[in-house]
Structure to design on (89 residues):
């Protein structure tokens, strides 16, 4: 049986970006979202799990939002930096 490594923080970060970025006045194009995600994921503690290759990764519990304050702080920092120096020319 084959397995894949999944960083469950990636799904949490992307959900937080999609919920928060428009409110921050940052561009919401795919490139800017990816830049904010890369910045944020580089600064949060990863949380890897193994899932079967043919199975979808588990969806995180929405109640985890209360633990997302660190993620949100980093997203705000990232949005400031990305807005000042966007990579979509």
């Amino acid at each position: 049986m084959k397995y894949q490594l999944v960083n469950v923080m990636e799904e949490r970060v992307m959900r937080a970006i999609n919920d928060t970025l428009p409110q921050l006045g940052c561009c919401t194009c795919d490139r800017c979202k990816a830049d904010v995600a890369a910045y944020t994921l580089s600064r949060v503690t990863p949380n890897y799990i193994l899932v079967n290759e043919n199975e979808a990764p588990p969806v995180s519990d929405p109640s985890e939002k209360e633990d997302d304050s660190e993620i949100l702080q980093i997203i705000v920092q990232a949005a400031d930096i990305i807005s000042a120096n966007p990579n979509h020319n």
Summary: The mean pLDDT is 88.
